[in-house]
Write a structure and sequence with these properties.
Elements lengths: L3 H11 L5 E4 L9 E4 L4 H10 L7 E10 L2 E13 L2 E13 L2 E10 L4 E9 L8 E3 L8 H12 L2 E3 L36 H15 L6
């Protein structure tokens, strides 16, 4: 199979207006991925599925990622004058990056027996702009998994044929897989209350039993 850089180049040759960025990965096994812009994402996905050399016809997995606001430090080397002598010095800069959500797609070719190729779609932020295009029109296997990412991370997939909760109940208003999610002290229904659940419920009941202070 071609390298991820070659695949990105192939995409741009076929769809010059596409926004394609190769994202490296320093962790083992170092599997790089391709970040797609929203505008041409569906066209790119269709190209990856239909291109004769790639034939990425199977989407095995779709998952979500939650990136909180963070500060990235970068250290560079520079030459500075110290007591009239030029010496090398390290300069560290900090950049504040706003948080966002990502939908990650793992692709294989069943016909050509190669893969995986990893695609990423990124939201504008974690709060108001959490939309990405759905790739279900290209890979039907993504349908339920995009619903799961919507349910647990709050990623809205534009163009999904049936975007609704799949694990949590309809009235649930939070997203349990986000990094800042906090579990409630008790639950509406706990079929087998035990240990930590019982302790949480007891703390909640004790708090609820306290009288309100008089005005």
């Amino acid at each position: 199979m071609e390298t991820i850089e070659q695949i990105a180049s192939r995409i741009l040759s076929a769809i010059p207006e596409a926004k394609v960025t190769v994202i490296g990965n320093a962790a083992v096994p170092g599997q790089a991925s391709i970040l797609l812009g929203h505008g041409c994402a569906v066209n790119v996905a269709r190209f990856l599925r239909d291109d004769a050399a790639l034939r990425l016809d199977y989407c095995s997995n779709v998952t979500g990622l939650d990136w909180l606001d963070r500060v990235v430090k970068t250290t560079t080397k520079t030459m500075q004058l110290v007591d009239g002598v030029e010496k090398e010095a390290a300069v560290t800069t900090e950049e504040s990056l706003p948080g966002y959500l990502e939908a990650v797609y793992i692709l294989y070719s069943m016909s050509l027996k190669h893969g995986p190729v990893i695609l990423r779609l990124r939201t504008a932020d974690r709060l108001a702009e959490t939309r990405v295009p759905s790739l279900t029109p290209v890979w039907k296997s993504a349908e339920f998994q995009e619903r799961e990412a919507y349910d647990l991370f709050g990623i809205h997939f534009d163009g999904h044929p049936d975007l609704r909760r799949i694990l949590m109940w309809d009235e649930f208003t939070d997203y349990p897989m986000r990094k800042d999610y906090r579990q409630p002290d008790d639950y509406e229904y706990e079929p087998t209350p035990h240990d930590e659940i019982v302790a949480k419920a007891a703390r909640h009941a004790a708090t609820a039993a306290q009288p309100f202070p008089e005005a």
